[in-house]
Specification:
Blueprint lengths: L3 H14 L6 E6 L18 H7 L4 E3 L5 E3 L2 E6 L5 E6 L13 H12 L8 H4 L2 E8 L2 E6 L6 H4 L16 H4 L6 E5 L5 E6 L12 E6 L3 H9 L5 E3 L6 H6 L3 E16 L9 H9 L3 H9 L3 E3 L21 H10 L6 E8 L5 H12 L4 E8 L4 H4 L6 E6 L4 H9 L13 H12 L3 H18 L2 E14 L2 E2 L15 E2 L2
Parallel strand pairs: 1-10, 14-15
Antiparallel strand pairs: 2-3, 4-5, 5-7, 6-7, 8-9, 9-10, 11-17, 12-16, 12-17, 13-17, 18-19
Helix pairs in contact: 9-11, 10-12, 15-16
Amino acid sequence: MRSPILATLVALCATLTHAAPTGTFRHAHNVGFGAQSSLDPASKGRVLQIIEKVQSRLVRPGRGGKPEPDLATAWKPNEDGTVWTFHIREGVRFHDGTALDAGDVVYSIKRVIDPDYGSPARAAVKMIEHIEATGPLTVRMRLESTFADLPLQLMDPRLRIIPEGAGETVDQSGIGTGPFKVETFDPDGITVLSAYEGYWEGPPALARIEVIGVPDAQARLQAFLSGQLDMERGIAPVLRRALDKSLRYQLLEIPTGNWMGLAFRTDMAPFDDPRVRRALRLVVDRDEMLDLALDGGGVVACDTPVSPNDQYRAEMRCPPDPERARALLAEAGHPDGIDVDIHVSSLDPSWPVIGVAYQEQAAEAGIRVNVVNAAADGYWSTVWMKKPAFTTSWGERPADQALNEAFHSSAKWNESHYSNPEFDRLLEAARAELNFAKRRALYIKAQEYLAETSGTLIPFHVTQLVVLSNRVTHFDPVPNDALRWHLVAVVD
């Protein structure tokens, strides 16, 4: 028989474990999609800073970046990697109280792979030929060909599970199974999220999160410094030392696969000539650009989008060679150099620095760069993919997704309009190769080929600087996509 004292202690521990959510956490987002901002995870205008807190995936990244169960508890391929079976977590409910089942998973993934819907996430999972429920909590995915790394693809931050039939309303409701639910959605103002106490991992520590639309990076920083925000990500590196010395803030340095750089549209002259594209990238002193843009807070990249800690990363060297760049331009019919307009924006504080650094470095090879400042508001809809040359940035993705989504000739968001049959062939061969060593060799060869022929300058991967107010606790130093928001707390 249990003693009264023991029973009291057990009850007390249970109370402490499931303490009621409390406190409000405030942070900003950059309103990068302007009027197209949406809570539909599969849409072009998805606001990931909100979606990450309200909707869950089948598979999420663990601390080491490897696939970890989320709404799926287990998965298994057949012998040739063409059919995958996923087991769905039992007892999970959406914010409206309805139970998660296999039908919701099938519906959510079907929306993404439907070419008529036009989801930018389709590039990550377009190898899924058919998906069906084989039981109340079992889903089978049949692929068009062998693919050994499907769980890696399903970690995509846009592949969230929504209720069956919710496609027409999710853009405003944001309904999901995540630790927070949407109370009000206002991308230009304040979006309010409240704790979802039915979350499968337990009630969140926070009662409320406010995500505030602030397009300008400097304005976001000022709002943080004045105490209006509890977090600011991607702060200017020049402020690192000052903030790190202050007792008022916590500064986290988080190595990531995030990258930023310059995209040159390969379907427009003079960038349609691969010799010109190679010259544009040969002029860059990447160490110097990293020091100027991020105060050294990153890892040099030789134009590969694959994260430094990814198992498929190609290690390459790319020292500046302005003389070779000048010779390539002459060979391409530009002995007197070329004139280039590059559009930058304060949407990211490092973009204008990259533009100016590139302007100075490119001049050594006769490349005359005019840096054009574009408005931060609506940058992704009015400048990105539309101007001949522009600054860009991408979040961390597994190697196959990073390469396919940004550079495969059929990718919807192939921002540089890069189209190369040999590169496409290498990616398709890598996906079909079940032997890890051979698969890795193919991905490395694809990156090396890209470094010679692409229209994108990727000078470095970013070590992200995140500054927090001192009242924030349980905020792990991990990439955005791996943070467990239900654990984050504030102490008033």
